[in-house]
Amino acid sequence: MALSPRSSLSVEKEVKAQVLAARLREIVDDDLVEVARLLVSKPDREIFGETEFQLRDILLKAGAKALEEHLRQKKTATTGPV
Predict the structure, then answer these.
(1) CA 24 to CA 66: how far, in whole Å?
(2) Which one of 21, 27, 47, 61 has the fewest beta carbons within 10 angstroms of its own beta carbon?
(3) 67, part of any domain
(4) pLDDT higher than threshold 60 for residue 1
(5) Looking at the 3D structure of the chain, how many domains does it have?
């Protein structure tokens, strides 16, 4: 079994990962609520099929937000304050 990414990070990168994770929790909170609402709104017989596609779309949107935030943090770290 491969090492988890966490175990292979330096202390400095782990700190950065924790900061990013905290920010991502804020950014994707509305998306997670949307996921929860979608899931509780469906009867068991409708959890698969179309619901899976709706779920995927929400999570892809959250993933795009995560990428944008990661790149924003990297840009801020390399350019410094304006």
Answers:
(1) 6
(2) 21
(3) yes
(4) no
(5) 1
